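Appendix C: a fully annotated inverse folding record. The material below is reproduced so that readers can follow the format used throughout the book. The structure is listed first as tokens, followed by the designed sequence.
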């Protein structure tokens, strides 16, 4: 079996608004073979940048577009192809969007592998340890504490036992920050509350907020510092009264390595659309040997939701799953199957590969760019 096509498609909703939500556009990679099989994957990054990395022509041996690297290869050789892509993109890849583009390809290769062997991906990864996982409704803060309370109340009423609110307008001042968390707690009641700060503070301010938020019994404080401040996270985790979570912006094993080596986090959040299955399996093993906790990050489409479920179900201590509840057609309608929590729990797919099927009519209606 050989790879004959690597198709890259960019989809976008009709109205993109100024908010921190990556469910407004998508870059989809489709790997096709001479046997007629197709695997699908996606990356969470700027779609046009990912597409450029896939489409780029040969420049020299370590600066080459992914399509040219993959054509003619056996798609079942996922580990070897990951290493080949990594080696031949060294001049523009390694830890950032180059790895995210590789992750989209890798997701598609594993989907194809599952279809070839007629097995779900979690079985190819070593076997699932959970049939279903408690899900939290992941949504942005409201404009103030009162609106945030209404948002949390809505998703609690929808059956979620856990809710996460995040990003703007947190970070303006202490009064606003505490009002947002108080509102979220009032809305969810006694359920599990998670807070995503959105990379807004220095370490000392983050510690003061963690101390203030402890009163509201939050499950974790996510990304209080900028994503590159590993020293700050190490300092904060050692002092915080609440668990510290981060990692969603990291791309691949090399990006995660210093975080794991330095015990920088309580919860490592791995995005399959930035790490792929191949590197996510490595990250899982490293985090578990540190006895830290793992969670997925996902704020895109059902492709990454399904991928995240396959991976997280293989994690020994998986305890909660990020379930994006953004009101976006890309989140809910890209696939024929609905991949969402029911009564607060989300079920791991058991069909071959990712276990989801693209709605080709939806793809056609939202397609803005394609290359093969």
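Designed amino acids, in order:
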């Amino acid at each position: 079996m050989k790879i004959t096509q690597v198709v890259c498609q960019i989809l976008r909703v009709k109205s993109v608004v100024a908010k921190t939500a990556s469910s407004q556009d998508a870059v989809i990679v489709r790997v096709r073979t001479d046997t007629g099989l197709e695997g699908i994957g996606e990356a969470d990054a700027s779609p046009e940048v990912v597409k450029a990395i896939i489409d780029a022509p040969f420049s020299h041996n370590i600066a080459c577009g992914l399509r040219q690297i993959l054509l003619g290869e056996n798609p079942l050789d996922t580990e070897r192809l990951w290493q080949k892509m990594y080696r031949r993109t060294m001049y523009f890849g390694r830890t950032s969007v180059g790895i995210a583009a590789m992750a989209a390809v890798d997701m598609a290769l594993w989907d194809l592998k599952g279809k070839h062997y007629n097995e779900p991906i979690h079985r190819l990864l070593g076997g699932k340890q959970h049939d279903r996982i408690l899900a939290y409704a992941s949504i942005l803060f409201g404009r103030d504490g009162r609106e945030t309370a209404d948002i949390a109340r809505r998703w609690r009423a929808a059956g979620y036992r856990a809710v996460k609110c995040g990003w703007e307008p947190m970070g303006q001042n202490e009064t606003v920050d505490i009002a947002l968390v108080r509102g979220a707690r009032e809305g969810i009641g006694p359920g599990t509350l998670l807070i995503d700060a959105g990379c807004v503070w220095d370490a000392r301010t983050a510690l003061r907020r963690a101390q203030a938020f402890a009163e509201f019994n939050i499950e974790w404080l996510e990304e209080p510092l900028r994503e590159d401040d590993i020293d700050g996270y190490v300092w904060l985790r050692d002092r915080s009264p609440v668990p510290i979570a981060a990692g969603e912006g990291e791309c691949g094993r090399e990006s995660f390595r210093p975080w794991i080596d330095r015990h920088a986090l309580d919860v490592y959040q791995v995005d399959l659309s930035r790490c792929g299955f191949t590197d996510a399996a490595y990250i899982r093993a490293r985090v578990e040997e540190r006895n830290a906790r793992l969670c997925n990050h996902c704020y895109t489409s059902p492709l990454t939701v399904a991928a995240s479920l396959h991976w997280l179900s293989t994690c020994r201590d998986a305890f909660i799953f990020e379930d994006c509840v953004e009101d976006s057609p890309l989140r809910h309608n890209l696939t024929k199957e609905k991949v969402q929590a029911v009564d607060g729990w989300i079920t791991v797919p058991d069909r071959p590969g990712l276990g989801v099927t693209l709605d080709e009519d939806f793809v056609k209606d939202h397609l803005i760019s394609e290359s093969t």
